[in-house]
Amino acid sequence: MVPRTTLSVLLIEAGRDASDDVSTTVNALYYPQSLDLHWSFFVKHHSDADVEGRYRLLTRTLPNGTYWIWPSAEAPADAKLKGVWYPRGAILGGNAIVNAMASILPNDADWDKIAELSGDSSWSAEYMRNIFGQAERNLYLRANESKAGHGFNGFVQLGQEDLVGHAVDQTSALDFLERDANFLGASRD
C-alpha cells in the first residue's frame, strides 16, 4: 500500500452545499433530485443513427421541457433529440452525491479489457481489486458475510446509511442498501 504521507490531493468542488437536502444525505435516496444539483451533458456516441438510437439513456426534450429517456424506437414524434444523458454533480461532494453515494467496482472484464488495450497489467481486474482493498475501510459487512475482496484499514470509508427517522419504503430501501455490490464472486459480473 502507498503510504498516505506520499500523496497530496487538491480537490476543487463546484456547486452549493446541499447537506440540508435529504436526497443528498441518505444513500440511494437520490432520485429525483433538484435539477440545480447537477449539470446535464448530452453526448452522441455513434454516427449510425440506428446504433445511437439503442442507448438506454438516449434523451429527448418534450414540448413541456421535461426529458424523455428511452431508446429511439418508442420516442414521441414531438420529442427533440439531445443525446445520451450524463448528469454530473454540481454540488459540494460532486458526482458521489448525484450517484447515490455508491461505490461500485466495474465489471472485471472492463478492467481486463483496459489492461489488454493499454498493454499495462496494472489495469487488470486483479490489480485494481487489490488497490480497492488497500484503499477501502469497510464499515458495512456483517460478521456472517464474506470479507474477500474488501479492505478494512484504508482511507476511503464505506458504510451504509442508518435509515431510522427517514420516510422511505423501508422494505425496498433496505433490500437495496444491504446488498454488497462489490463482493468477490463470479456471479457479481
Automatic annotation (TrEMBL):
Q: Give the Gene Ontology MF terms in alphabetical order.
A: flavin adenine dinucleotide binding; oxidoreductase activity, acting on CH-OH group of donors
Read off the InterPro entries from this record: FAD/NAD-bd_sf (IPR036188), GMC_OxRdtase (IPR012132), GMC_OxRdtase_N (IPR000172)
Cross-referenced PANTHER family, in alphabetical order? GLUCOSE-METHANOL-CHOLINE GMC OXIDOREDUCTASE (PTHR11552), GMC OXIDOREDUCTASE (PTHR11552:SF80)
Domain Glucose-methanol-choline oxidoreductase N-terminal intervals = 84-144
Q: What is this protein called?
A: Glucose-methanol-choline oxidoreductase N-terminal domain-containing protein
Give the family from UniProt: Belongs to the GMC oxidoreductase family.
Superkingdom of origin organism: Eukaryota
What Pfam families does the record point to?
GMC_oxred_N
Report the source organism: Parachaetomium inaequale
Which lineage do the record's taxonomy fields give for this organism? Eukaryota, Fungi, Dikarya, Ascomycota, Pezizomycotina
